[in-house]
Amino acid sequence: MSAEKAIWPESWPHPDDFFGDLDDRIISIHSRQLLTGSQIIVRFRNGYGANILHNRLQEGLSEIAFLKFFGAGINDFDFIHDGPVPDLTWCFNPGEIYNLCDSISKLGENRKDMKRAKPPI
User: Fold this and answer.
1) pLDDT of residue 112
2) Are 84 and 117 in contact (CB under 8 A)?
3) Distance (Å, rounded) from C-alpha 34 to C-alpha 3?
4) Burial, 2: exposed, middle or buried (Cβ in 10 Å; 0-12, 13-18, 19+)?
5) Element (H or E) spanning 116, and its range?
6) Which residues span the domain enclosing 87?
7) pLDDT tens digits, 62-86
8) How far apart are the C-alpha atoms of 4 and 112, rounded to whole Å?
């Protein structure tokens, strides 16, 4: 899995707890340390992704933002608002993160999903 190659935050559960059987839908996973905590950016084959921010001050609480990639670079994305999944979600456990990532990774299987996802203006 791409996650195995990423520098995974030590305090987080194993990547399989977040992404489980999504391996075949993931193109890349990148991580970075921020002042507020650890950030994981996962990119799915359908061109969408998730920005997962684990707040070090609130143990067990993660913020997930919905992304749409427009280029090949890891920073080539827009945050999506008014899309088919919530644009910002607070998750309290790896199962909730997995469920949201699963929904994002399936976008585009139904053509209506693709039309509803709009980048900010």
Assistant:
1) 52
2) yes
3) 18
4) middle
5) helix 111-116
6) 2-116
7) 899 999 999 998 899 999 988 888 7
8) 33
Rounded to two decimals, the pTM is 0.79
CA distances from 88 to 5, 23, 40 (A): 27, 23, 15
* Domain-embedded: residue 48: yes
Is residue 98 one of the residues assigned to a domain? yes
Structural element, H or E, at residue 113: helix 111-116
DSSP track, 65-110? EEEEE-SSSTT-EEE-BSSSS-SEEEESSHHHHHHHHHHHHTTTSS
Total domains in the fold of the chain: 1
* Within a domain: 121: no
